[in-house]
Write a structure and sequence with these properties.
alpha/beta; TIM Barrel; 2 domains; ten-stranded mixed sheet; 11 helices; about 20% strand; binds S-adenosyl-L-homocysteine; binds iron/sulfur cluster
């Protein structure tokens, strides 16, 4: 198994343990994980005693456990460091949203191989993919966290794949985790957003993948032109913008009613991609696509990186160019920067003995 592969999913592990059990039994097991009154295998009394005993021995009730939890001063953002059962660490973030409910920012990998120059996760390189359980259990962890704080709103209404990692490089596990939530929680597909740096072959594969769920897709664009994008997103493929524009049109044609679910994300970095000329070029690019929305993200500072954030007046000017051209623009609110939980700030450095230093 390559070093970066995810651990075995518990569904597959169950199939190995109980090869003659019918599919509905495995579904019953999956459902139990998401039944809030159940805290361990001993509570799943719909399963026979012998089966429960095997499960207790073989399959941990949670695929990951909390190591440290941090809360922002405002109390509207919480970050957890989770350890997989192999003790590798990754992070997950819970943010209070406009509806006074919660959005989880989930990780899909430990680290990331894409190396975007402004992103803390990118500096870690890729340690490994997360299993579908480790992705899905970030929801279970935060549900439990909230249930222990009855004064807080309890509903998790949204999930965004904007934590550590590039979800489309781990697409099979990401898909499984999404289907698990759709089957066993009250999350609907339009409340789930997959954010991607734009892995074109995988994006193209989604168009004909019957198993791809109807979730929102956000593409991290960051620059209207290939050469300047490659300076900050080194994995930018040849003819990236041309192929992406074509992809948005194919998406509209093939998955028609989902077209409003595509967004371009644009992190504004002072002096790099934030001047008004750049905004005008972005308008020209967006006009070649079927995408209807641009979400600008103020840069969050990352230790050891020389980049700085655009001023709010600079951001306003940039947005105005887009708005005047009739493009729908929103600005991402920065949350949790005091606990290094904002977009692009998730990274861990682990000293021997498991101590977290970054
Ligand atoms: N790999 C995926 C999802 C994780 S990153 C992607 O790149 O889309 C989630 C979002 O955070 C992306 O839009 C990414 O460009 C943005 N981001 C990364 N570093 C950032 C930083 N320092 N400040 C603001 N946004 C950042
Ligand atoms: Fe990876 Fe996304 Fe960070 Fe780029 S921005 S390094 S793709 S996590």
């Amino acid at each position: 198994m390559p070093k970066t592969d995810a651990p075995l999913n518990r569904h597959d592990h169950c199939k190995e343990l109980f090869p003659s059990e019918p599919a509905f039994r495995l579904k019953q097991i999956e459902k139990a994980y998401f039944t809030e009154t159940m805290k361990g295998w001993e509570d799943v009394t719909t399963l026979g005693k012998e089966m429960r005993e095997t499960l207790i021995k073989e399959i941990p009730w949670m695929s990951c456990t909390p190591v440290t939890t941090l809360s922002s001063k405002s109390g509207d953002t919480h970050k957890v460091v989770l350890a997989g059962n192999d003790e590798q660490l990754f992070e997950s973030v819970l943010m209070r949203n406009k509806r006074d409910q919660w959005t989880i920012c989930v990780s899909s990998q430990i680290g990331c191989a894409m190396g975007c120059t402004f992103c803390a996760t990118g500096t870690m390189g890729l340690k490994r993919n997360l299993s579908s359980d480790e992705i899905a259990d970030q929801y279970r962890f935060w549900k439990r966290f909230l249930s222990e704080k009855p004064d807080l709103p309890q509903r998790i209404s949204n999930v965004v794949f904007m934590g550590m990692g590039e979800p489309l490089v781990n697409v099979e596990n990401v898909k499984k985790a999404i289907h698990t939530w759709l089957d066993h929680t009250d999350l609907g597909p339009t409340r789930i957003t997959v954010s991607t740096v734009g892995v074109l072959p995988v994006l193209e594969g989604i168009l004909t993948d019957k198993d791809w769920p109807p979730v929102k897709i956000a593409i991290s664009l960051h620059s209207p032109e290939e050469e300047s994008r490659r300076k900050i997103v080194p994995t930018t493929a040849p003819r990236f913008h041309e192929r992406l524009a074509q992809w948005t049109k194919d998406y509209e044609e093939i998955l028609g009613n989902r077209r409003h679910h595509i967004t371009f994300e644009y992190t504004l970095i002072a002096g790099v991609n934030d001047n008004e000329d750049e905004a005008k070029r972005l308008v020209n690019f967006v006009r070649k696509t079927s995408a209807v929305k641009v979400n600008v993200i103020p840069l969050n500072l990352v230790d050891g990186k020389a980049f700085t954030a655009s001023s709010q007046s600079g951001i306003e000017k940039f947005k105005k160019v887009l708005l005047n051209a009739g493009i729908d623009v929103t600005q991402r609110k920065t949350m949790g920067s005091d606990i290094a939980a904002a977009c692009g700030q998730l990274a861990l450095t682990i000293k021997s003995g498991g101590k977290i230093v970054g």
